[in-house]
Amino acid sequence: MTEQTITIYCFIDDFFHAIGRKDDIHCKLSDAEVLTTALLSARFFYGNLHSACSYMQNHHGVRMIDKSGFVRRLHRLQPQLLALFSALARSLKQLNTSCSYLIDSFPVAVCDNIRIARSHLLQGEAYRGKSVSKRRYFYGFRVQVITTQEGVPVDFFIQAGSFVDVTALQAMPLDLPEGSRIYADAGYTCYEVEDLLNECEQVELLACRKSNSKRPDEPHIAFLKNHYRKRIETTFSGITNFFPKKIHAVTPQGFILKLILFIFAYTLNQIIE
User: Which helix (H) or strand (E) holds 137?
Assistant: First the structure.
């Protein structure tokens, strides 16, 4: 755990130095220490910021601030957190010489279905979605994730639970190298999107075909699609293993921030280990 803490801190601190970001001289806690603590909370403490702050103070001598001040600093640093993930993702894409990627989504409920009417965190039918694999409805967010062939996340997109996969894909800003192939399940089937990606982005979307598809696959192509896309389920299991029984958040922005931290922490964990 100590090695991972040092590695994460050095990565963040080097990035801030590279972009010329400097800490306020009046702050007791640096931006790199704030983000390191937040990522450690997602990786080792199920998103509990208080436990992560106590660990940093007791084991690394970091002078912590009060919880409310820490949370406010963390929210202000969300753009830098996303910039860090983007910088790491660009490096992973450059190292991914196979140019093969996987895409799928997983649901994150903010409450049980029976408590939807009493939910204060989210309001509206836009957040009511259906998990086909679990054969049940949920109320919350749907997270689209793109990973390398090995299952390391390089991009993600968080939207309301009612959005279906192919609709979310159209809204998602893809940033993949030319000549890339994206393996997906049948939920991403849209011939128009496939043609546009191939023509405009030089990216090939390889979605599994349904039995009544107008563009059926040859048996060996169907086998490859099913073989590759199953790896992303292991990634989702790894990310959700970091989740607590219930993700605590006071605002939707805070809930989304914690989801970002869980995905980022999983990505770093895959790279470091």
Answer: strand 136-148
Closest CA to 147 of 107, 182, 198, 177: 182
The 10s digit of each residue's pLDDT in 242-269 is: 999 989 999 999 999 999 999 999 999 9
CA-CA-CA-CA torsion sign (171, 172, 178, 183): negative
Task: Using the CB atoms, write b or e for 226-259: b if 16+ within 10 Å.
Answer: eebbebbeebbebbeebeeeebebeebebbbbbb
**E strand or H helix that includes residue 139:** strand 136-148
SS3 category, 120: coil
CA-based nearest residue to 209, from 193, 189, 195, 224:
189
The closest of 86, 87, 64, 7 to 39, measured between CA atoms, is 7
Residue 23 to residue 46: CA distance in whole angstroms: 28
Give how far Cα 263 sits from Cα of 73, 143, 156, 172, 267, Å: 20, 10, 8, 17, 6
Please state the domain extents for the chain.
2-76, 97-249
Kindly state the average pLDDT of the residues 177-200: 90
Beta carbons within 10 angstroms of residue 126's beta carbon: 12
Task: Classify residue 11 as exposed, middle or buried by CB count within 10 Å of its CB (0-12, 13-18, 19+).
Answer: buried
Q: What is the DSSP string of 216-248?
A: PPPHHHHHHHHHHHTHHHHHHHHHHTTS-SS--
The tokens for 136 are 């049940």
- pLDDT average, residue stretch 198-227: 85
Instruction: Give 24 or 41, the one with higher predicted confidence.
Output: 41
